[in-house]
Amino acid sequence: MTGLEGKVALVTGAASGIGLAIARALAEQGARVTLTDIDIERGEAAAAEIPGARFLAADMSKSIEIERLVDEILKTEEHIDILVNNAGIQHVSPITEFSEEKWRLIIDIMLTSPFLLTKAVLPSMYERKWGRILNIGSVHSLRASAYKSAYVSAKHGLLGLTRVTALEAAEHGVTCNAICPSYVRTPLVEKQIADQARIHNIPEEEVVEKVMAAEGAIKRLLEPSEVAQLALFLCSDAASGITGSAQTIDCGWTAH
Ligand code: NAD
Asked: How far is the CA of 176 from the centre of ligand 1 (A)?
């Protein structure tokens, strides 16, 4: 139904959370998925559980590893149909204390690597006149939060890259969209909840309701599978008229 049978997909940061859910959902539709991540142990374990999937390790902060990753895939697959730029990290600190090293690392992983991968996959997508690029943004692609300067800047920049890619690639049958979720229940967020509960000495459910989900109209976290369903739709033939968009899935967060 989705037209994804036999499509070749690459998902970054796929060893856990949202990336893993998207990789699994694409494989369930018959796509041949390469999962990549810096975490080799978890990445290999994840790929082993997904029929037809494989894992290739790569550090998204290193151009040379990104280049090698694409070369490796193109050796056996000849082309890449779907690219999901998902890898990401978080660092919370006031600008006055934010190190240049941390800033550069976050921008490299979350903005430069999507640019480099987009640049690498577009030629084979153009040749086949079909392609889907999904950039995993955030409500922080559209709204700011204090103490997250690099994260918010990278996610805003990623939306800019999404729009430019959409404009350049449209005539070649390639779409590019950003998915902008509010908080999703992933290992990254589970740790934040536990930390907040400890700091404020309140139960974890209260952290979810009063802190993490406070900005949303619907007071809950999203599940990775909900984001994966939106990703599937955007990759499908039914979404061929959607490009350059910031697709929010945010429990009403940005409705304010
Ligand atoms: P996660 O920590 O579960 O997964 C992120 C993955 O990226 C991990 O497997 C990690 O090993 C990998 N990674 C980190 N640095 C890397 C590097 N240098 N090279 C390759 N891989 C690397 O996190 P998640 O919550 O699933 O987040 C995935 C994406 O979704 C991120 O871009 C994040 O900003 C975005 N997002 C998450 C939420 C949320 O609430 N969880 C909300 C909005 C957007």
From this structure: 19
Q: What tens digit of pLDDT does each residue of 104-113 get? A: 999 999 999 9
Is the minimum distance from the CB of 13 to ligand 1 under 6 angstroms? yes
Q: Catalytic amino acids?
A: 151
Task: Supply the DSSP string of 228-249, one letter for each residue.
Answer: HHHHHHHHSGGGTT--S-EEEE
193 lines ligand 1 (CB under 6 A): no
pTM score of the predicted model: 0.97
Which residue is closest in CA terms to ligand 1's atom 6? 13
Amino acid at 214: A
Cβ-contact 173, 159 below 8 angstroms: no
ipTM surpassing 0.95: yes
Distance CA 81, CA 131 (A): 5
How far is Cα 60 from Cα 44, in angstroms, rounded to an integer?
Answer: 17
Q: What is the C-alpha to C-alpha distance for residues 217 and 190, in angstroms, rounded to an integer?
A: 21
From the CB of 87, is ligand 1 less than 6 Å away? yes
